[in-house]
Fold:
Amino acid sequence: MKTRKAFTVLELILCIVFVGIFVVLFFFQKNTVDAMDRDDQRKTAINAMYYALEEGYYEENGYYPEKIDKAETLRWIDPNLFTDPWGINLWQEGGDYKYEASDCKDGKCKQYTLRAEMEKEEDYVKSNRH
Structure:
């Protein structure tokens, strides 16, 4: 009598279950890492805008703008930084980036807040230092 060496149905099912678990864990981790990368991009953009406002715009004008315009207000930084990871610009509704000027008179403001809505942590916020 010959004995055949082969996988049983139970062994095949267990292998499929283990592979499925590993695939789910891989994609869950990948999504987490991707979200953290997008959060890092947001922080980089907010920091660039912050330093351009402080070191460029304020030093040149003595006040902060009421609104940010990439062509005039913050011409010192890469225009791509005004677009969040979803492709929405700073001045468009629904984007991750917000610029809120306060204590304004005739378009000249004394204070502002830059904010980025994050996926994996609290909002990233920078305020004027002058």
The first strand starts at residue 64 and ends at 65. The chain has one domain: 11-127. Strands lie at 64-65, 97-105, 108-116, 124-127.
